[in-house]
Amino acid sequence: MDEISKKIEVIGLSAWFGDKQALKSINMYMQEKCITAIIGPSGCGKSTFVRCLNRMHETIPGAAAGGRIMLDGENINDPKIDPVLVRRKVGMVFQKPAPFPTMSIYDNVASGIKLNGRTNKSELDRVVEQSLKQAAIWEEVKDSLSKPGIGLSGGQQQRLCIARALAVKPEVLLLDEPCSALDPISTGKIEELLHELKKEFTIVIVTHNMQQAARVADFTGFFLLGDLIEFDVTKNIFTAPADKRTEEYVTGRFG
Amino acid sequence: MVFAGSIPLLFFLVLLMLLFQSRLALFTFGPWFFLSSAWNPVKSQYGALPFIYGTVVSSLLALLIAAPLGVGCAIYLSEVSTSRSKEWIATMVDLLAAIPSVVFGLWGIFVLGPVFGLSMMSAGVLLAIMILPTITAISREVLQAVPGTLRESARALGATKWETIRLSVLPPAASGIIGSIVLGLGRALGETMAVTMVIGNRPQISGSLLAPAYSLSAVLANEFAEASSDLNFSVMVEIGLILLIITVLVNGLARLLVWKMVSNSRIQ
Amino acid sequence: MENGQQQSYSIRKFKEKAFLALVFAAALLAVVPLISLLGFVVYKGIGALNLDFFLHTPVPVGEKGGGMANAIVGTLMIVGLGCLFSLPIGLLGGLWLAEWGKGKRGFLIRYTVDVMSGFPTIIFGMFAYVLFVLTMRRFSALAGGFALALVMLPYITKTTEEMVKMVPRTLKESALALGIPEWKVMLFVVLRTAWSGIFTGIMLAVARAAGETAPLLFTAFNNQYWNLQLDQPTASMTVQIYNYAISPFEEWNRMAWAGSLALVAIILAITLVVRKYSKRVVYG
User: Fold this and answer.
1) Which residues from chain B sit within 8 angstroms of residue C41, using beta carbons?
2) Architecture, CATH, for domain C55-278
3) Within 10 A of A23 (CB to CB), how many other CB atoms are there?
4) Rounded mean pLDDT of B76-89?
5) Complex confidence, ipTM
6) Strand pairing report for A35-39 and A202-206
7) pLDDT tens digits, residue range A141-172?
8) A203: which residues sit within 8 A by CB, 6+ positions away?
9) CA distance B233 to B237
10) What's the structural domain count of chain A?
C-alpha cells in the first residue's frame, strides 16, 4: 500500500457568517492526485467548506474562518499569507459557468496569466492551447479562439472555465457543483475529464448528486449542518457507511 | 474609496464657499435683505425681495400650467394609449428634456416675446414647457408602479377607464405624482438661462404678470461677474446661497414623496 | 364605486369620453412645444448654417462671413476638461459605492451625490469662479471645465454604480479565484464588463454638459478669437448662442439660430444613439 500523501490537511476548520457558525471544527484530508467528493443536503456547509480552501470565504463581508488548512505542510489559512497567492495554487470552478463576457475564448483562458503580469505572446499561445487540451475542448474551439466566450453552449462554457482555471497552473482544483447547471451529456463529458485531470491535479468536488460522487470520487466526505459526519473511501460511504445519518442520506431517506 | 469620499468633500466645500463669501452681506443686511426691494449697487442698496418674488411666482406659474398637462400626459401614456403612438410621444417628451436651456430661451424670445413681452408670464410659460418632461416621466413611472391587480379588480366590477383610474390607480400614486410636481418645481426654481432671456431682468415687483421681472438665478447670471465691490460680491454670493437652499429643500421634499410612494407599492 | 353605479349609464359614458379626450389633449399639448421649437430651430437656423459657420470666428456686425468655429472647438475643449476632472472620481467612486458602499458611509455619499445632481448649475460656476478665476486672476477654460465636471459628476457616479451592480457576482468570484489581486479584478474584469453601460452614461452626461451655459458665464467667459490655451477665456457654443440671442442685431440673432441648430443636432444625435445602443446591453 502506497504511503498516503496528504495534499491538503484540514485541522479544526470552523467558519462563520457574522455570528452564525456554518462549519464546526472540521478535520479531514485530501489525498494527492485523487478526487475527493463533498456531499450533503442543502445548507450543510459543503460550499462554505470548499470556499475556505482557497480563501474565498473571507471575501463575503462579515465572514470569518478559523483553524488550519495545511497545503503541502504549510498553513494557508494563516492571515499573514496573501490569499491571492493561495488562489494561484488552489483554483476553483463555480456552479454557473461564468466566462468573462467581454473577452474571447483565447482571452478568457489567458486572463489569469495576463492579469498576473506575464504577457509573452508565444508563451501565452502555448499555455492557452495546453489548458484547452487539458479541459478536453481544444478540438472544438481551436479554429474560433477569437470568438466571444459566451457564444459557447453551457457545457462548453464550463469546460472553458476549467481551462481558464488550469491555465494558472494550480496544484489543486476545487469544483463547486460544476454540473448542476448542465445537461446529462455535458455532465458526462466533464466527469470523464475529471478522471483524466486527476493524474496531474488534486481535485475536490462538491456535489448534491450522489451518483456523481459514486462515479467519480476516490474519497467522499458527508457533511450535515456544519459537521463532517463521515469521511472515507467512496466505496465504504455508499455500501457500508459507519454512521446512521450517512446511511439515511445515501439511501435517500432525506436531503 | 478616496475617490468616492471626495464627492461629499466637494459638496461641503461648495457649501462652505457660499457661506464664507456671503458673510459680509449676511452681517451687513441681516434678515432685512429678504424684505427689501431696493436694488442700487452704486449706492450700496441691496434687497433680495424682487428676486425671490420673481423666482417663486414664475415657478408657481409654471407649475400651474405644467402640472395638469404633465400628469394628464402621463396618464395617457401609462393607462390609455396603445403601444404605437405611446413610444413616439414618450420619446418626444424625453427629447424635450435634452434640449439646452439657451435654445429654449432663444425660442422663448421670438415666440413668447411677441405674445407676452419680456415678462413674468413669458418666463412662467417657458418654464412650464421645460419642466413638463420631468413631471410626465416621473408620474408615468409612479403610475406604472401601481400593481395591476388593483386595476383589474376595478375593471372586473364594471368600472369605466376613468373610474378605474380615479378610484384605484390615482390614490396610491398620489404622493408620487405630487412628488413629481414638486420635483418639477425644484427644476423651475433653479433654471437660469431660459428665464433670464425672457423675464425682462428688471428688479421690480409688479401686480401685472405682463410686466418685466427678475429672478434669483437671472440676477446671478447677469450681475455676478460685474460685482463692483466686496459688498456687491458678497451679496451675489448670498443670493446664490438662498437659491441653493430653496432648491435643495424643495428637491429633498420631492424625493421623499416619490421614494415613499415607490417603497409603499413594493410592500404591496 | 357606489357613486358610479348610481349615476346613469349615459352620464358615466360621457365622463369617460371627456376624460379620454382631455388626457389625449394633454399629451398632444405636451408635444406641440417640442415640434414648434425644433421647427423654428431648423427653419431659422438652416439658412445661416454654411461653411463659414464651421470654419470662421465671429466678425463684427455688418461684415459677411464669420462663424462659430472657435466656439465649437471651445465647447469640445471645455467638455473634454470636464471629463478629465470628473471621470476618475465618478468611475472609481461609483465602483466603490457598488462594491463596498452598503453601510452608513455609502449611504451618506450616495445621498450627497443625489443632492448635488439637483443643484442649479450656476452655483457650480460660482464655486469654480472663486477657486480658479479669482486665484488665477483671469477667466479660463480650466475653470469652465471644472464647473462642468461638477455638473457631470453625479451622473457618472450614479451610472457607474448602477452598471457595476448589475455585473453578476460569479464573474467577480471567478476572477478572484484565479489568483488575481482584488484591485485588478475590479478594474480589468468588473469595470470592463460594465463598461458598455457606463459608457452610455458618460455620453449622456457629456451631452448634458455640452448644453450648459450658466456655469460657463463667468468661468470660461467668452472669446471672439481662437484659443487653445487652457488658462485663457474660451468661447463655447452655449455662451456664444446666448450672447447672439440677446443682442439687438438681426445678423447675430440668425447666428444664434444656426448655433442652436448645430448644438441641438449634436445633442439629439448623441441622445438617440445612446438610447438605441443601451437597449442591447447583455451580460451573458
Assistant:
1) 103, 107
2) Orthogonal Bundle (1.10)
3) 25
4) 77
5) 0.87
6) parallel
7) 888 888 898 888 988 999 999 999 999 999 99
8) A34, A35, A36, A172, A173, A174, A175, A194, A197
9) 6
10) 1
Tell me the nearest-neighbour CA distance from C141 into chain B, angstroms.
Answer: 16
When CB atoms are compared, the residue of B17, B132, B186 closest to C127 is B17
**Residue range B157-191, pLDDT digits in tens:** 877 778 888 888 888 888 888 989 998 999 999 99
Instruction: Name the region of B172 (left: φ>0; alpha: ψ -120 to 50; beta: rest).
Output: alpha
In A95-154, the residues whose Cβ lies within 8 Å of chain C are 95-96, 98-102, 111-112, 115-116, 150
The residues, ordered by sequence, that sit 6+ positions from B226 with a Cβ below 8 Å of its Cβ are none
pTM for this entry: 0.84
Range of the domain at A195: 6-99+170-250
Cell of B104: 429654449
CB contact under 8 A, A111 and C189: yes
Residues of C in contact with A89 (CB under 8 A): 179
Is residue A84 in some structural domain?
yes
Query: Is residue A1 scored above 50 in pLDDT?
Result: no
Q: Cβ C120–B99 below 8 Å, yes or no?
A: no
| CA distances in angstroms from C239 to A119, C210, C213, C264, listed in the order given | 49, 11, 6, 14
CA distance B117 to chain C (A): 14
User: At residue A18, does pLDDT exceed 80?
Assistant: yes
DSSP B215: -
Instruction: Enter the C-alpha cell of residue C223.
Output: 472669446
Cα→Cα distances A164→A89, A175, A177, C181, C191, Å: 14, 13, 17, 16, 20
Residue with cell 463547486: A176
Across A232-249, average pLDDT: 88
The amino acid that residue B206 corresponds to is S
Nearest to C175, CA basis, from C163, C161, C186: C186
**Per the domain annotation, does A239 fall within a domain?**
yes
C125 C-beta neighbours (distance < 10 Å), count: 32
Which residues on chain A are in Cβ contact (under 8 Å) with C175?
A: 100, 111, 115
CA-based nearest residue in chain A for residue C182: A84
Q: Does C105 touch chain A (CB under 8 A)?
A: no
Give the domain range for residue B119. Answer: 51-267
Mutate to test the interface with B, among C123, C238, C270 (most CBs of B within 10 A): C123
Instruction: Indicate if the pLDDT at residue B37 is higher than 80.
Output: no
Residues A97-108: tens digit of each pLDDT: 999 998 999 999
**Number of folded domains in chain B?**
1
Interface probe for C, chosen from B2, B6, B7 (most Cβ of C below 10 Å), is B7
Coil, strand, or helix at residue C129? Answer: helix
Amino acid at A87: R
